[in-house]
Design goal:
48% of the residues lie in helices and 13% in strands. By secondary structure, the chain is α/β, with parallel strands linked by helices. The longest helix has 13 residues, at 96-108. The model has no long low-confidence stretch (mean pLDDT 95).
Length: 128
């Protein structure tokens, strides 16, 4: 399976949080799965942390690229195909970072690891 982790899934996994579902944790830990983290997630975390909307339990550099390297996560850069896909998405959800993750998952054929209830309205495989 090819997974794309939403920001909360990444943070909960790296922090060992019980908020991460058992099935999500198992899929992330499965060495047979490819795990991706969007560069947009790194951007979102930096913005929210700088605004005081997110308190990191570890330093930013321990997450990006630290946790990615430690856990074998692959960085997924954004490209024009992803932005083009945004044009086709209905506005069930207006969060720009989430919409980009949805577009990336659709274009790249990835399963989104997220508990965000808005994601179910889009044609994208979800795991939680």
């Amino acid at each position: 399976m090819r997974l794309l982790l939403d920001s909360h899934a990444l943070l909960w996994f790296c922090g060992g949080s019980a908020s991460l579902s058992v099935s999500a944790r198992a899929a992330i830990e499965d060495v047979g799965n490819e795990k991706y983290v969007s560069q947009a997630t790194a951007w979102e975390v930096a913005i929210k942390a700088s605004l005081g909307k997110l308190t990191l339990t570890v330093s930013y550099s321990e997450l990006f690229p630290g946790a990615l390297l430690t856990n074998g996560f692959l960085a997924l850069p954004s490209d024009f195909r992803h932005y083009h896909e945004l044009l086709t998405l209905p506005f069930h959800h207006r969060h720009p970072f989430d919409r980009l993750l949805i577009a990336q998952a659709r274009v790249e054929g990835l399963t989104l690891v997220s508990c965000d209830p808005h994601f179910t309205a889009y044609s994208v495989p979800l795991l939680w």
